[in-house]
Amino acid sequence: MMSRKLEIEVYNFDDLKKNDELCDKIYHKFWIENPDNINLNADENIYSFKKFAKALKMSIDFSLSNSEHQDKSCYIKLKPNSQMDNTECRNIVTNYGSSYWICENLKTFTLELLDQEKYQYLCEWSFNDFVLEIQEKMFDLWFADNRDYYSKEYFLDHIECNQYEFNEDGELV
Hints:
Elements: H1 13-18, H2 20-32, H3 42-55, E1 58-63, E2 75-80, H4 86-94, H5 101-115, H6 124-149, H7 152-162
Helix pairs in contact: 3-5, 4-5, 5-6
């Protein structure tokens, strides 16, 4: 029996940095088109949204994609379980503690909302607007994080940190 030696060319981070065409090809195949590649922070982001909503005595319903852009099926819906006044909301949010960036971003955003004149007194209609703004902020944060995750810069950082190597078809070797 005769054995054959198969040689394949292997590309690493340095090769990708030098060759834009190769980098784009591998980036799209390995990072963008790979259905198994989802934002590693997705579960933590959803947990953070649920935790923040619960702190504000709201239920949350959502359907979110793991892409960097929203589609028509994506939504976040907050439903207050009770109406609160500005002081009660401010106390809850001020004392809300989490070191995760989305929670801190929501906390800062919500406190800034509560400082606005239109939310100094939270009646039924202003409270509904207040909830809608938080809901929109969650939505924006979700897709901003996905855009960051699926960016070429993050891809290259990931490749460099993990010292991945690829064949010319964009498959890990």
